[in-house]
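Dear colleagues,

As part of the handover before I leave the project, I'm documenting each prediction I ran so the next person doesn't have to rerun anything. This entry is a single chain, and its sequence is reproduced below.
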Amino acid sequence: MAKKVRILHTEPITHNVRAYRVEKPEGYDFKPGQATEVSLDKDGWRDEKRPFTFTALEEWDDLQFTIKSYHDHDGVTHELWSMEPGDSLLIDDAWGTITYQGPGVFIAGGAGVTPFIAILRRLAADGKLDGHTLIASHKTEKDIILRDEFENMKGLTCIWTVTGQDGSELDRGKINKDLLERYVDDYSQKFYICGPDKMVEDIRADLKDLGADADGMTFEE
């Protein structure tokens, strides 16, 4: 049964990404990396459920979602952008297969980084980030989600690549076998992959070609 939660605070993250802090129902439980179905508690939108990942930690008093809004069509995320503290969302129970399995490399395409936010925050809070790497692809530097926070996480190696910005000092292009070969030297570690379906499929194939074990890859199924 859906639970009604009020929006308590919104915070801009990038030009089209916001963090939404919302009420946490009593006894509500989730694990870092998990998501829930969310809909907007307003006429015409209550049945339009979309999956969004929790970016809060379990011990926080409130829940948080970090959500990219797509303004090229009148969808849920576009409508969500207009909502303010005091407005309400409807959420279901937590679910998801992207949970932490051990040290490794987190590979994200755009907003696909969101399932990794709470996982990396958990590891940072516990002082257990040494040996972890985040490889993330975005269109331009201004699209990079939580860049400062990730770069300030002690022990986390951050590798950024942009696909649509001339003159950037970051790596250029999509995450592919060549890029992985440059930055990964141990394919026995865990790999966490999230992004568009085609990207996930291609990276899984590249990692297998490079010697990674399919059982060591975690992705949303």
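The mean pLDDT is 96. The longest strand covers residues 3-14.

All the best with the project,
I.
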